[in-house]
Amino acid sequence: MKKIIAFAIVAFSMVASSFALNLSIGARGNAGLNLDVNQDAIQQVTGLTVDKDTAFDVGFGLYANAALLGGLGVQAEANFVTSNTSFNGGNNGEKVDYETMLLDVPLMVWLNLDLANFVVGFGVGPNFSTRINEMSDLKALTKDVFKIGAAAGVDAKIFLTGNLALVASVRYIMDFTKTEVPIEFNGYTIEDATYPKIDFQRKSLYGGIGLEYKIL
Question: 3-state class of 187 per DSSP?
Fold first, then answer.
């Protein structure tokens, strides 16, 4: 997996440096809410009720933006998010915290609108997410462990110097899941007959603050 990630970074950099009018890299801290509550936590914990007010996410992200023409380009990100969900009903009525670490890898079509020293960017595209227990799990990741979803984002940038900018970001992330629903007719379930249904899971909204450096 490390070789795949390294190859992707090198390939992205080569393409961007060859064709991009602008190339930037950045890092930021993230914090937000899991709007759908942590479904992974709910599946792992039984006998307790969810305290929805504490489905809170924190983490950090790295990204690269390549503007190819008139501010239109692509933005690739890697966002690590620690999702905390609290449950009621533990021993003596105490709350029980359940923590998971998630890796989101969105690849978005991105448009930057340059307004002198102020830039507004927004984009949308697919998101690939997976659960990891610790950072060392990255060594064992394969492409088939990622869930497919969607990501949308907005960035606001204020340039502190000619190349360095302060960035405020908002991201909306959700995962897709497919389930097979039994087909019923006149109140009877038809044996071995199903149809696929796409559901939305892990709908998360979080914001971030970070720095961006303009290479080209």
Answer: coil
22 DSSP β-pair partners: 67
Label residue 11 left, alpha or beta by phi (over 0 means left) and psi (-120 to 50 means alpha). alpha
Interatomic CA distance for residues 216 and 204, integer angstroms: 32
d(CA 136, CA 128): 19
**Whole-number pLDDT of residue 107:** 95
Measuring CA to CA, how many Å separate 8 from each of 12, 140, 183, 213?
6, 17, 43, 20
pLDDT beneath 70: ranges in the chain? 1-20, 36-55, 89-93, 134-138, 140-144
Question: What are 103-117's pLDDT values in tens digits?
Answer: 899 999 999 998 877
Give the model's pLDDT for residue 150: 95
The single residue listed with the structure tokens 């960017």 is 121
Helix (H) or strand (E) holding 207: strand 188-214
Asked if residues 117 and 156 have their Cβ atoms less than 8 Å apart, the reply is no
How many residues comprise the chain? 216
User: 82 Cβ partners below 8 Å, 6+ apart?
Assistant: 57, 58, 59, 99, 100, 101, 102
Secondary structure element (H or E) that encloses residue 4, with its range:
helix 2-19
**Token output for 189:** 């379930």
Q: What confidence tens digit (pLDDT) does each residue in 1-35 have? A: 555 556 555 665 655 555 557 889 999 999 988 77
CA geometry: angle at 66 spanning 60 and 72, to 5°? Answer: 115
- CB of 23 closer than 8 Å to CB of 216: yes
Question: Encoding tokens for residue 138?
Answer: 């990255």
